[in-house]
């Protein structure tokens, strides 16, 4: 059996203002931005973190976002993290709290309207049937 060694290298995003969007995400993740020309690289903030790369927009933003980030926080800390992200400039979009027994999340948008979720998973003994 073949074992695959694949990992996420970086999330690449086009931005109207790559430097400002990188600063927002640096505040979210705790990483230090590394600008280079018109683009900005944001390395992983630590083990298990993820890198991001911001570059200038090459065309109009699509009306429908085809994917988004799901960020996970420890059980019981979602609301505090959402409050912190709102204070950094994120915009609240909606909550999904009672639909699924194994997860609760809040959907937010970053400074340029890119959606992302902050999710928490209850311990197995607290998940409903």
Automatic annotation (TrEMBL):
Domain named Glyoxalase-like: residues: 11-118
InterPro entries, per database record: Glyas_Bleomycin-R_OHBP_Dase, Glyoxalase_6
Name of protein: Glyoxalase-like domain-containing protein
């Amino acid at each position: 059996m073949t074992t695959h060694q694949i990992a996420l290298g970086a999330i690449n995003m086009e931005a109207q203002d790559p430097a400002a969007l990188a600063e927002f995400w640096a505040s979210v993740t705790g990483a230090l931005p590394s600008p280079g020309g018109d683009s900005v690289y944001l390395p992983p903030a630590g083990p298990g973190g993820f890198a991001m790369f911001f570059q200038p927009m090459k065309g109009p933003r699509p009306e429908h976002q085809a994917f988004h980030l799901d960020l996970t926080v420890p059980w019981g800390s979602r609301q505090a993290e959402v409050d912190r992200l709102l204070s950094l400039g994120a915009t609240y979009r909606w909550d999904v709290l009672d639909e699924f027994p194994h997860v609760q999340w809040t959907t937010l948008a970053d400074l340029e309207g890119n959606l992302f979720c902050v999710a928490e998973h209850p311990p197995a003994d607290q998940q409903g049937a």
